[in-house]
Write a structure and sequence with these properties.
- With 96 residues, this protein is mainly alpha-helical.
- It has one domain.
- The protein is built from five helices and two strands.
- The protein has a two-stranded antiparallel ribbon with strand order 1-2.
- Helix 1 packs across helix 3 and helix 4 packs across helix 5.
- The longest helix is centred in the C-terminal third of the chain and has 15 residues.
- The radius of gyration is 13 Å and the shape is globular.
Length: 96
């Protein structure tokens, strides 16, 4: 029987933004693609999500905001952003 995915409660919006601004994996996105960062942070801030759904939630948020951009990102940029944001977002949980 498979183990249930762990539920994680995420930090408030300003705390997640601060972590993304300082992390080497995401600091460039924070300064150059702030609209993407803000869309992803809105999905997680002060919410509880399954640990197994983080990458999927980041993927949906990035693709949604990218489809509305006047200058859409390339597929390789999107893949890189999704991977990096997913890794850093996993560290933005409230410690119990």
């Amino acid at each position: 029987m498979a183990a249930a995915a762990k539920s994680l409660h995420f930090l408030p919006q300003q705390d997640i933004m601060a972590k993304l601004a300082k992390n080497p994996l995401t600091m460039n996105y924070y300064t150059q693609r702030k609209d993407l960062i803000a869309a992803v942070v809105e999905v997680f801030a002060d919410r509880t999500k399954s640990s197994s759904g983080i990458t999927m939630a980041v993927t949906f948020a990035v693709h949604d905001i990218n489809s509305k951009r006047p200058d859409p990102l390339s597929q390789s940029e999107i893949v890189s952003i999704i991977q990096d944001l997913s890794l850093v977002i996993r560290g933005c949980v409230v410690k119990k």
